[in-house]
Design brief:
Elements (H helix, E strand, L loop, with lengths): L9 H27 L8 H37 L10 H4 L10 H18 L6 H25 L5
Helix pairs in contact: 1-2, 2-4
């Protein structure tokens, strides 16, 4: 039984995918730039370009996160609209990313519900796929490594 009309989420998905690819390419360019810039270059034009690219990457990463979370929340809310029982209020699909410690497992459990629920609605079966687990493991590891690197760089005496 459908409770209400499922909202189209395809535009949000396309926007999120496009931004994820743009962020990945810019991150690859930034990584290459970091390999080319000497550690002691302070006034070099390449170092200025590196700083500008870093700021653009930060802004693009924030925009990408916003668009991904918009898609994620609507995908979760659509499960309920399609008559599926969901474990959490759909607001948690957005809010769980920002609550310390909860953000280590709640977004994964919600994504698992979206994955399984969508697959069941489309194909009447529930898949068992390791991609979802690997996505979350990589996300948590890169987030943790990023925080450790940021913390250690604050205490560094040289570049």
């Amino acid at each position: 039984m459908i409770i209400s009309t499922v909202l189209d989420n395809s535009d949000r998905a396309k926007q999120a995918i496009m931004l994820l690819w743009a962020t990945a390419f810019l991150l690859a360019f930034f990584t290459l730039l970091n390999l080319l810039v000497p550690a002691d270059a302070e006034d070099d034009l390449l170092a200025v370009v590196q700083g500008i690219v870093a700021l653009v990457l930060l802004g693009l990463s924030i925009i990408t996160a916003v668009y991904f979370i918009r898609w994620f929340r609507r995908a979760y809310a659509n499960l309920k609209r399609a008559g599926r029982r969901i474990q959490h209020d759909d607001g948690w699909a957005a809010g769980a990313w920002f609550v310390p410690f909860l953000n280590l497992f709640r977004p994964y459990s919600i994504m698992k519900e979206v994955w399984n629920g969508t697959f069941q609605l489309a194909y009447a079966q529930q898949p068992s796929h390791p991609l979802l687990r690997w996505w979350w493991i990589i996300f948590v590891l890169t987030s943790t490594l990023g925080r450790v690197a940021n913390s250690s760089s604050r205490h560094a005496e040289t570049a």
